[in-house]
Amino acid sequence: MLEKLEKDIGYAFKDKSLLRLAMTHPSYAGETHVHNQRLEFLGDAVLQLCTSVRLYNQYPDLPEGKLSRLRARCVQEGALEVAARRLNLGRYLLLGHGEEAGGGREKPSILADAMEALLGAMYLDGAMEEARRLIETVVPIQDQPRVHDYKTEYQELAQRVTGLTPVYRIVDEEGPAHARTFCAHAELGGHVTGQGRGNSKKQAEQQAARDALAKQGL
Questions:
Q1: 44 is catalytic
Q2: Catalytic residue among 40, 77, 116, 211, which?
Q3: Which domains are seen in the chain, by residue range?
Q4: pLDDT digit string (tens) for 162-216?
């Protein structure tokens, strides 16, 4: 089945085990702890770099702040979910029975993580240029979903009003490794100004920023 995925992405892995690892969710790995989270970490860096270079070249007149906000839209979970669905990554995932029964193949966070893991695997296989091409193919800038970026909005407001930059802390984690729920605090000047929960750290931080904005926590 993974041969079909290789055809879909237009790249044949030299080390097939990297591709399998990229599609292995922690729920499938069980006690072996051999799953795609480390590749996800690496793939995030690949995505950030390739997107930064692309935006730098494509928008020579944009200042750093606007480039950063545009990049944020390109690399957030919603955009990665769209990319993963375009490649139909859900059908290739290796999931544990519980996650399978719970609709894991359709969960946005799992799909986004798999997309990052795939990019990390391509990089390790010596295919950075192919990873760049894939990013530009399935994560086109003009097609980014209009997901509200509460963290950017709160940061801009906080800096304008107080001169301070919000920071975020993950203060709690619940659930098994393959189905974590995270609790995040938004803090400004050492004070908690908002809190939020989510199925990923990024989502929890976004919800904490949203809470801080609702409270005008400054």
A1: yes
A2: 116
A3: 2-143 (1.10.1520.10), 150-215 (3.30.160.20)
A4: 999 999 999 999 887 767 889 999 999 999 999 999 888 988 999 999 999 988 7
Of the residues 8, 44, 136, 153, only one is catalytic, namely 44
Residues 180 and 193 sit within 8 Å (Cβ to Cβ): no
pLDDT tens column, 84-126? 999 999 999 999 998 888 888 999 999 999 999 999 999 999 9
Residue-level pLDDT at 1: 81
149 catalytic? Reply is no
pTM: 0.65
Q: How far is CA 39 from CA 75, 124, 129, 140, in A?
A: 16, 9, 17, 22
